[in-house]
Structures are given as structure tokens and as C-alpha cells.
Amino acid sequence: MRTLTEDNKGGSLLDEAIGRWMHLFLDTDANVNGNDAVEWLANWLPRAKAFRDATAGATMKEREDQIVADALRIVERRCRKAGSLLSSPKAMRDFLTLEMRGLEHEEFGMIFMDQRHRYIAREVLFRGTIDGAAIHPRECVKLALQHNTAAICLFHNHPSGQSSPSQADELITIRLKEAFALIDVRLVDHVIVGSTIFSFAEAGLI
């Protein structure tokens, strides 16, 4: 029987075993060096144990919710590190999709950016069925001033999965664009998350 340190066509059995393990569980065909993989596992396993201990007794849904929350923090951190959120539309789409797809209620919010369109913050302003009476331009303008923002991206979701804008969506977008213009803040997009993503900017509606 070969040992873990014996060569196997230029690599050890350890390399071979870890490579198969990573292909099976991580869906990767990378040619993994045994020592590097062991170091990776040594770093990963304590975090996995910590997650298991922290969610002990939790239901599957509660564990999934925790994973999604952790993923959101990672995506938001990447948006910040990227510097310019709009120069990375995939990051914005990934973030909004991860945050909003699957919600059973409607949410409306804003992403605040500086003059170079670098991410400042995001806020959810309203939960529930959105109509013209639910969104108050004055409150939106107040938040824009508080964040000292120069550009804003609106976002909301359609729990039905239909991502095309309603007439109310279009009217709200026009009202807020006009309100922001009074304080020299540019509305750069309004993104709707459904089964697909709809962008007002890409559709030429802004």
C-alpha cells in the first residue's frame, strides 16, 4: 500500500486525495498542491466549526439566513473596495439580487454615491406595496443631504418576479429625479429586482 508521501505520477497521494476532494465538494479542477491545500483547510475548518457552534439548534432556514447575511456583508465590502460601484455593474447586480430576490414583501431603497460614483451607503426606505403616496421626496432629499451624496441609484423588488416597471414605478422615478435635481444630486439609475434585473438607465428611461 502506498503512503501519503509516496509519489504518484509527479505528485503525492495527499495531493491526489485533496484534489479529488476539492473537485467533489468545491467544484474545481484546480491542480492543488498538498501543502497549500492543507493550509487552506486548516484556516477553513475553524471557521466552519465556529459557524456550526454559533448556529447550534438553529433551523435550516435560520442557517441559510445567516449564510445570506454573511454573503451580503462580503459583497458590500467588495463594492466599497471596488471604489466605484457603477464601474462594476456586476457587483451592483449581484448585491441587489442577493439582497432582494426571494423577499416576500416589496422594499424600496437608495444607494448613495459621491461625485466619482463611489459607494457611500445604502438604505431601505420603505417596505410594503409601493405607490406614489408611499414615497415622500422630502424624506429622500433629506437622506441625500445627510449622506452628502452626489449621485443616487434607486432600487426595489417585485416579489411576483415580474421585473418590468409599473406606471407607479415610472412616476416615482420622475418625481425623485426632479426632487434630487433641486439639490444638484443626479439620479443615475433605478433598478428593479425580479426574476431578472431591470435598469431604467439601460432602458433609456432616465
Indicate the proportion of strand residues. 15-25%
Q: What composes the largest sheet?
A: 5 strands, mixed
Q: How many helix segments?
A: 6
The total strand number stands at 7
Outline the low-pLDDT stretches.
1-11, 24-30
What structural class do you assign from the helix and strand content? Answer: alpha+beta
Quaternary status: single chain
Mean pLDDT over the residues: 75
Q: N-to-C terminal Cα separation, in Å?
A: 69 Å
Written account of the structure:
With 206 residues, the chain is α+β, with helices and mostly antiparallel strands. 46% of the residues lie in helices and 18% in strands. It contains 6 helices and 7 strands, in the order ββααααββαβαββ. The protein has helices at residues 13-26, 34-54, 60-82, 89-100, 137-146, 167-181; strands at 7-8, 11-12, 107-113, 119-127, 151-157, 186-193, 197-199. The strands form 2 sheets. A 5-stranded mixed β-sheet has the order 4-3-5-6-7, with helices on both faces. The chain has a two-stranded antiparallel ribbon with strand order 1-2. β6 and β7 (197-199) form a beta hairpin. α1 packs across α2, α3 (60-82) runs antiparallel to α4 (89-100) and α5 (137-146) packs across α6. The model is unreliable at 1-11 and 24-30 (pLDDT under 50).
